[in-house]
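Q: What structure does this chain adopt?
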Amino acid sequence: MTICEDASTQPCGSPPDIGASWLRAPYPVVVADTDGTIVGVNASAAALFPGAARGSTLDGVVPPWLTDAHRRTAGSDLGSPAPPVTGRHRHMTLTAHPTPGTDGDVVWWLVDDTDRMPARSELHDEQERTAFLAETSTRLSASLNVQRCMNVTVRLAAEHLADAALLVAPANGRQHPLAGSVGGDAPRHTTARIDPSSIPGLGEALRGFPPVPSRWIDPAALPAWAVPEGFGGPVGSVAVCPLPGHGVPAGALILLRRGDRAAFDASEEVIARLFAARAGSALSAARMYSEQAGITATLMADLLPPALRQVHGVEFAGGYRAAQDTERIGGDFYDLHPADEPGQETLAILGDVCGKGLDAAVLTGKIRNTLHALLPMAGDHENMLRLLNGALLGSRHTRFATLVLASVVRRGARVRLRLTSAGHAPPLIVRHDGSVEEADTSGTLIGVLPRIRTRTAHVDLAPGETCLMFTDGITEAKGGPLGDVMFGEERLRAAVADCAGMPAEAVVERVQLLAAEWIGANRHDDIALVAITAPRSAHPAPADGGTA
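A:
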């Protein structure tokens, strides 16, 4: 580039790729060669850098950060745009944009970003805060486990908001569960009897009131339990934030910074409260879910079929499969009421309530409780079923049910049964030779008519013989090659015929396996089975029916 005599203010023979327009540019412009010698400046640059003139060097004239940037840029391959550089000069923040000239010269266009940089910094900080709060919401919503939510809360708070964080959960009796983290490390859980009034604002935060300013809290007066293990060094500042829940406070969050860091300012306290609001909502939801799950588990424990076993020398086994794989209870049920002493009858019950799911399970529970209350009348099946029918007709339920009652007692090596059906399919009797009989019992279903009728069958089982009670969920289960053929009673008879001589548990498992293979992935109703078997025993039971 050639420069005229007055080149300090005006170019002469400007390179064709730049032109003379830079002279009239509203921004300061400095042109320097590969050695860092200034070959041209416009009036704005001369006013900005008084020592800048043709022939002078950049060193000592422009800020050092611009000189260093020129050394990196001059003479390099500028096939792609070189990045701008930013630095301070006097009271200004300047951004220098390089443009290649001829012979390795570089034209530096300088923009005053003094007013824009704070806004850019604030925007960047706001973007980081937004990203942090978004991450908080995502991670906290990933679990409905209370302890996991506590872990996520203190780890995020200790990593992004403070040097350490301690979560104080609502009191459980006289003690408060605590979770603390230092620097985002794995949280530590403890339970302690604490005095919330020992930290200003903590008692109010646990009751859901707005936080006190952090400057009101004296770090030197902080009790030992409030500083997580491994914190190290003196506490410099403390902030307490309530964790608002769904109508009930979810606890409080204590944030701690070391003495060598700046205290919490107003904007940081705002972010901490926003974070605490999200954490409190997640903790409250997790705690509500945990409480509801506990209630559900307690109620469901009485609705689930019991585990069956051998009672006074008679084998009992049961199997249950709900209509939906996601459900544990439904409308099919069975129960067993063991006799107090050998020689007395044990009552086995299998039933099917109209419908499935939770509504049917509620009526199932009512029927089971009513039958349990009617146990003293188990010697008379018809009377027992009549009273149950009256109880259902007098309730608000509009569903009906079918049942089979089996009173079972062992006499010597044989097992005697009284079987009474109330609108239910008769049980199947599997003899030791593989033949299958249908018990001669029938009756009216329960919960529909004011009067019922029943017929009781008396059956004797020799050693190795089995009585199988079942619900229609198995006979009406559809499957096969096209998934539209019912399993049917004939297939069930063939299946149990192959189980001659098997223990009761093996009979149930065999039938369940065949039914599952037949159904495949098709929809089905609830399925329940109860097998009663006279065991093959080398030592027969005593004549009075004692346990074998």
